[in-house]
Specification:
- The protein has 221 residues and is mainly α.
- It has 2 domains: 3-26 and 141-208, Orthogonal Bundle (Endonuclease Iii, domain 2), CATH 1.10.1670; 35-134, Endonuclease III, domain 1 (Orthogonal Bundle).
- It contains 11 helices and no strands.
- It has helices at residues 3-22, 35-44, 50-63, 67-71, 75-82, 88-104, 114-117, 125-134, 145-153, 162-172, 178-191.
- It is globular and about 55 Å long.
């Protein structure tokens, strides 16, 4: 590891320690009871809020709680149930195709490697890493919208492509820190380092952040 990457690794460790005091339990905000529900919910969360997915998922999983049942679901009914999550036609096709594919896997178990998960219908790299991190407890760098924004503002990455960002982070960060770093920066992007109006003046990372366009307005009371 180069001296620069060593410095990045040390700074990331400081950031993780600071953020843990603010977010002691940065677990997924999506509601799920098993791996099937987690992968479906994560697919639905693309271009949609977790809150909206959590609102519609109880009815969806009551109707189609298993891959077998979802594989047999009429496409129009899936579209109706997930309509409010956006891009519902494409998502419904992906969910049905995913369920069919899972039915073909012995035991209907999910693959445990991100590269294999990413081959499933509707499953991109981000979703695959969510599954490996939070279902199989494997170190994973989860590049969602929040993580991408915060890592760029903190000066850790320069790339725009999520796959390249994942590689950049893995190049300097100790493997055991991949998942906590991802989860904590996701939370921080939601609650402080927001896209339009980051709460820089009250940010616990203010001294560690080189972001030049810091918000000069105080946070709301």
């Amino acid at each position: 590891m180069t001296p620069l990457k060593q410095q990045q690794n040390l700074r990331a460790g400081k950031i993780i320690r600071k953020l843990k005091t603010h977010y002691p339990d940065p677990k997924p905000l999506l509601h799920f009871k098993n791996g099937f529900e987690l992968i479906v919910a994560t697919i639905l969360a693309a271009q949609c809020t977790d809150e909206r997915v959590n609102q519609i998922s109880p009815e969806l999983f009551e109707a189609y709680p298993t891959p077998e049942k979802m594989a047999m679901a009429p496409l129009a009914e899936l579209e109706r149930l997930i309509h409010s999550t956006g891009f519902f036609r494409n998502k419904a096709r992906n969910l049905k195709n995913l369920a069919i594919r899972l039915c073909e896997i012995p035991g209907q178990g999910l693959p445990q490697e991100a590269d294999e998960l990413a081959k499933l219908p509707g499953v991109g790299r981000k979703t695959a890493n969510v599954i490996t991190a939070h279902l199989f407890n494997k170190p994973s760098v989860i590049v969602d919208t929040h993580f991408k924004r915060v890592t760029r503002r903190l000066g850790f990455v320069t790339e725009e492509d999520p796959g390249k960002i994942e590689k950049e982070v893995k190049a300097f960060l100790d493997q055991e820190l991949w998942t906590p770093f991802s989860s904590l920066l996701n939370y921080h992007g939601r609650y402080y380092c927001k896209a339009r109006k980051p709460l820089c003046l009250s940010c616990p990372l203010e001294e560690l952040c080189p972001f030049i366009d810091k918000n000069s307005q105080p946070p709301p009371a």
